[in-house]
Write a structure and sequence with these properties.
It comes from Rubroshorea leprosula. By secondary structure, the chain is mainly α. The protein contains 15 helices and no strands.
């Protein structure tokens, strides 16, 4: 007979620690998106843009400030996974969407209207629902136990699919569509990110046990997880930089969150079997909370000053001085978007030849 758990049972002391760390992480990461974006724009003004394969942002202090802010957030996130299940920690990334959206509205002048605010509220409601019905953390006594979970056939099959899909995106789709289709860069980040979270959680558990007196650093599995974390994080960083530089921050943040969270929850359910410790009511409530977050993210995505899914905004189709058809054939969309992001009025700029970065 299944044991019934209230939300109070789920919110153990470890879950509360994980909750606080996850919220702190979201605050830092949400701010880092904006700081890094400013740094990327400055670097792109004097060198080859990251979206075009350049790395001049590595010499930009503002980008490094954003990177350090993100690292602090990731450290807090890393610690959160050591205390709470991924199904609790990962959805709280919605807070970073809210922080990013508000700061983008204030600093980057990326519009946030009433529906965007409603999206933020839905993200908060969904996150709260998930927090109140989170499962208890699985009791793990050794990193060997985590390794056994990671090498079960179900998770190995998932990992193989993720790696294969990532290679296909990187080597086939990115060269052709990376500059025009936002889902390509973010797809790589999200797929690899789901594996990095599982490895981060394993490494966090190993360090938590080590600090409590049970040394896990003597096991090769701990170092194997460390190598996977490093490889995955470097890959995510590279393609997230490309996505941020190529597309509107207000579009990148929610789409990345939705894809990353969905895949991470799936990976966690497969590897750690989080739902085995919950009754159907808790699972359904959590799914409702997640759908609420997705709805909020969708609203944020569709009410921002971005062109991630639509070729031309209604403003350009109907109210611009230049007809949409003429503009579409005379000025490439990426150049058009970059002018808007850099604070220029595209209507006041005469037509010119396509941006050189689009001709290869």
């Amino acid at each position: 007979m299944a044991t019934k758990h209230s939300w109070r049972d789920g919110m153990s002391s470890d879950n509360i620690k994980g909750l606080v760390l996850a919220l702190s992480s979201s605050l830092f990461i949400g701010a880092s998106f904006i700081v890094k974006k400013k740094g990327l724009k400055r670097a792109g003004a004097s060198g080859v843009r990251a979206g075009s394969g350049g790395y001049s942002y590595l010499l930009e202090p503002l980008w490094w400030a954003g990177m350090i802010t993100m690292v602090v957030g990731e450290i807090a996130n890393f610690a959160a996974y050591a205390f709470a299940p991924a199904i609790l920690v990962t959805p709280l990334g919605a807070v970073s969407i809210i922080i990013s959206a508000v700061l983008a509205h204030i600093i980057l002048r990326e519009k946030l209207n009433a529906f965007g605010i409603l999206g933020c509220v839905l993200c908060v409601v969904g996150s709260t629902t998930i927090v109140l019905h989170a499962p208890q953390e699985r009791e793990i006594a050794s990193v060997i136990e985590v390794w056994d979970l990671a090498t079960e056939p179900g998770f190995l099959f998932y990992a193989a699919l993720v790696v294969t899909a990532s290679f296909v995106l990187i080597f086939h789709f990115i060269p052709q569509y990376g500059q025009t289709h936002i889902m390509i860069y973010i797809g790589v980040c999200s797929l690899i990110g789901s594996l990095s979270v599982m490895s981060v959680k394993a490494l966090g558990i190993a360090l938590k046990l080590t600090f409590s007196g049970m040394n896990q650093l003597i096991y090769p599995q701990t170092w194997a997880f460390t190598l996977v974390v490093i490889a995955c994080v470097l890959t995510q960083m590279n393609y997230l930089n490309k996505a941020l530089d190529t597309f509107n921050t207000a579009v990148v943040s929610p789409i990345y969150y939705v894809m990353f969270t969905s895949l991470t929850i799936l990976a966690s359910v497969i590897m750690f079997k989080d739902w085995d410790r919950q009754n159907p009511t808790q699972i359904i409530t959590q799914m409702c909370g997640f759908v609420t977050i997705l709805s909020g993210s969708f609203l944020l995505h569709n009410t921002k000053d971005g062109d991630g899914l639509f070729p031309l905004s209604e403003h350009w189709k109907q109210g611009s001085r230049i007809p949409g058809s003429t503009l579409a054939t005379s000025l490439p969309m990426r150049s058009f978007k970059r002018l808007e992001e850099d604070g220029f009025d595209p209507e006041a700029i005469p037509l010119k030849r396509p941006d050189s970065s689009r001709t290869t």
